[in-house]
Amino acid sequence: MAGTGRGGVPIGNKKPEAAAAAADEKDLRSYTIRLLPRLTVKVGDSVQMKFGAAKIERLFQTSKGVYINARFYIRSRDTRLAILPFISKRELFLAEATEIRCVTSIESKVTVHSAEEYFEFQNAAGEEDYFWRFYYHRPSGRIAHPGPGGAMPVICICEMPWNPDNPMMECIDCGELFHPPCVGMTRDEAAENAANGIDYVCSECNSQGAAGLPNQWQREVVTKNEATKLFR
């Protein structure tokens, strides 16, 4: 019987479910599990299972029962990547490989947004909502981007992806986002200025401003290397 790795991800190859794949298998569009209340799942759903959260990549039936190809999510805190400054506490990683699991292992549905959806609707996201943007490669701990079209732009002078756990300031002229420490400001100072209705203008826009109008937020911008250390 397979054990589970960090983050509740199944490991090992000796799984009784693996023998379920047979010549009589039939793909299903959806399936209703007889729970209280009943739960209907389909391909693409994110679900909570006995082994952890997973994404359903395939739903099929054989003479032995109904099964799914589950691609498990790994919690960021259970990886070595959690120390990276652009990794969020609400971020999950998709495992490289899929696992065959019995559909009765599903306990409930969970909400896992794309990074774009989470950033756009962050204030409306529930307490149990998560997001993902990277696949997790074992055992090296490398991360891989999901591919073209799903890229999140880098931000600030530190050129790191957005981490919703870290507060950002938006320049009212160019709309770019900056971490307060990366532009020589504490988070408390940034919060106080925002509370007082003081708009932020980045150094580049400020230097291009007409007649050099004073900017109460303007500070000497640190170098990229210094900003990276501050953000860490």
From TrEMBL:
SUPFAM superfamilies on file: FYVE/PHD zinc finger
Alphabetized UniProt keyword annotations: Metal-binding, Zinc, Zinc-finger
Keyword Zinc-finger: yes
Family matches, as InterPro entries: BAH_dom (IPR001025), BAH_sf (IPR043151), Zinc_finger_PHD-type_CS (IPR019786), Znf_FYVE_PHD (IPR011011), Znf_PHD (IPR001965), Znf_PHD-finger (IPR019787), Znf_RING/FYVE/PHD (IPR013083)
Residues in PHD-type domain copies: 153-208
Pfam families named in the record: BAH, PHD
GO molecular function, one term: zinc ion binding
Annotated PROSITE patterns: BAH (PS51038), ZF_PHD_1 (PS01359), ZF_PHD_2 (PS50016)
Zinc-finger recorded as keyword: yes
Domain of life: Eukaryota
Limits of the BAH domain: 31-147
Protein name: Zinc finger PHD-type domain-containing protein
Species of origin: Linum tenue
